[in-house]
Amino acid sequence: MATVATAAEQRWWNGGKSPFNVEYGKLMMWYFLMSDAFTFGAFLISYGTIRFSTNGWPDPNEVFRSFPGSGDMYAPLVFVSVMTFILIMSSVTMVLAVHAGHNNDRKGVAKYLAWTILGGIAFLSCQAWEWNHLHHEGAWWGRNPFVNADGSASTTNFTNFFFTITGFHGFHVFSGVVINIIMLIMTLNNSFERKGHYLMIEKAGLYWHFVDLVWVFVFTCFYLI
Amino acid sequence: MEHSTTAHAEHKDSGTKEIWRTFWILLILTIVELALGYWMIGKEGGFRLALKGTIIILMLAKAFYIVGYFMHLKHEIKNLIMTIIVPLGLFLWFIIAFLYDGSSYNRLRNNYDSYHKEQSTKPASQQELHNADDIKPKKEPAME
Question: Which domains are delineated in chain A?
Answer without folding.
Answer: 25-224 (1.20.120.80)
